[in-house]
């Protein structure tokens, strides 16, 4: 992870995963196509790596994508204030099981206050059907210094 001139982690959201996203998020496979302070769009190519022992995509993949999309978008919204946004709650609803395919992850800000943000994230299959939906509430905080 890189740091800014004041020793804070650099979490700038770009169309690629943030440098400090960690192996867990990278392995989930979220590829970001668009990010603004109020919206994020990405995709995940689901395959056997994402399966439960019963052959369907693990719900944790969707929960991870929802948390990550909301967090990256929310961080993008407060980066000009030299803040980051961290998740407080993630309520993920699983709607449709999948075994493989490309899903679209679309996050949008519902409310962006001085201290907190609320984002809604929908994951849809290639036919546009809802696979999972989540709401993430985030707190805007000053990032910790990088040692």
TrEMBL record:
Region (Disordered): 1-20
Keywords of this entry: Hydrolase
EC assignment: 3.1.2.-
Domain Thioesterase per the UniProt entry, residue ranges: 55-131
GO molecular function per UniProt: hydrolase activity
Recorded superkingdom: Bacteria
Gene3D superfamilies per UniProt: Hotdog Thioesterase
Family annotation (PANTHER family): 1,4-DIHYDROXY-2-NAPHTHOYL-COA THIOESTERASE 1 (PTHR43240:SF5)
Family according to the record: Belongs to the thioesterase PaaI family.
Name this polypeptide is given: PaaI family thioesterase
Lineage: Bacteria, Bacillati, Actinomycetota, Actinomycetes, Mycobacteriales
């Amino acid at each position: 992870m890189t740091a800014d001139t004041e020793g804070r982690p650099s979490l700038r959201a770009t169309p690629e995963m943030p440098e400090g996203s960690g192996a867990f998020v990278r392995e989930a496979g979220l590829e970001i196509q668009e990010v603004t302070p109020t919206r994020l769009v990405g995709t995940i190519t689901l395959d056997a790596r994402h399966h439960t022992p019963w052959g369907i995509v693990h719900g944790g993949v969707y929960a991870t994508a929802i948390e990550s999309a909301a967090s990256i978008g929310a961080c993008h919204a407060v980066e000009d204030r030299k803040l980051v946004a961290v998740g407080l709650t993630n309520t993920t609803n699983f709607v449709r099981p999948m075994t493989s395919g490309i899903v679209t992850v679309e996050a949008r800000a519902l409310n962006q206050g001085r201290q907190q943000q609320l984002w809604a994230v929908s994951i849809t299959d290639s036919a546009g059907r809802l696979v999972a939906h989540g709401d993430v509430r985030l707190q805007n905080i000053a990032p910790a210094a990088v040692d």
